[in-house]
Amino acid sequence: MSTVTENQIVATGIPRIGDAAPDFTAITTVGSLNFYDFKKDSWAILFSHPADFTPVCTTELVEFAREKEFFAARNTKLIGVSIDSIHSHVAWVQNVREKVGVYLDFPIVADLDTKVAQLYGMIHPGASATATVRAVFIIDPKNVIRTLIYYPLNVGRNLDEIKRVIEALQTADKHSVALPVNWRPGDKVIVPAPKTLAEVEERVANTTYEKVDFYLSKKDLV
């Protein structure tokens, strides 16, 4: 898949679901990193925070780090972004490790020139012209953006929901199904709606599905 250029993003605005995730190379807390190389054949969660050494951001990144085994088990890599310097990032990581006992060992991009933030539409001038909002991009192994979630500066993210979305996306892909409201692993899934009259007849005759009507049927995953 070709790399999306900065000019293309400027022309189209914030990357959308189904778009190729913009590639970039940047300085991070684990060294210079190319995004596509870093996430090769993996899912990725790219998320921004407004600033280092701030209370809400600290709670968020600590929770991401605490859930690293969950994400690793689902072939999902984490990468953070803010427009702080690499020196600020490194000092913050060490401070959090000392004060909270959690090591933020996933890469955090030092985006001083705002290149990454601009590529992903992470700076919303109506909220702040000098800090990134709390953006979340879930990107699949083919480098396609599958989910976008934006939170305001004063409201922390819901990690349970981000984990749920990862599991939902991977389940939907694996089984070619859709997921109903509030779906959790183990719940019934939605069978894709019929597309022909013959499929409608087959659906009506099926006795194994939980059916509201021919267009809304659920089943258990075996």
Write a structural description.
The chain is of the alpha+beta class. It folds into two domains: 6-159, 3-Layer(aba) Sandwich (Glutaredoxin), CATH 3.40.30.10; 176-222, Antioxidant, Horf6, Chain A, domain2 (Antioxidant, Horf6, Chain A, domain 2). It has helices at 6-12, 35-39, 55-66, 68-73, 86-100, 115-119, 159-175, 197-205, and strands spanning 25-28, 31-34, 43-48, 76-82, 108-110, 134-139, 145-151, 189-190, 210-213, 216-219. It has a five-stranded mixed sheet with strand order 5-4-3-6-7. Strands 8-10-9 form a three-stranded antiparallel sheet, with no helix packed on it. Strands 1-2 form a two-stranded antiparallel sheet. It is elongated, with a radius of gyration of 20 Å.
Give a topology summary.
Elements: H1 6-12, E1 25-28, E2 31-34, H2 35-39, E3 43-48, H3 55-66, H4 68-73, E4 76-82, H5 86-100, E5 108-110, H6 115-119, E6 134-139, E7 145-151, H7 159-175, E8 189-190, H8 197-205, E9 210-213, E10 216-219
Parallel strand pairs: 3-4, 4-5
Antiparallel strand pairs: 1-2, 3-6, 6-7, 8-10, 9-10
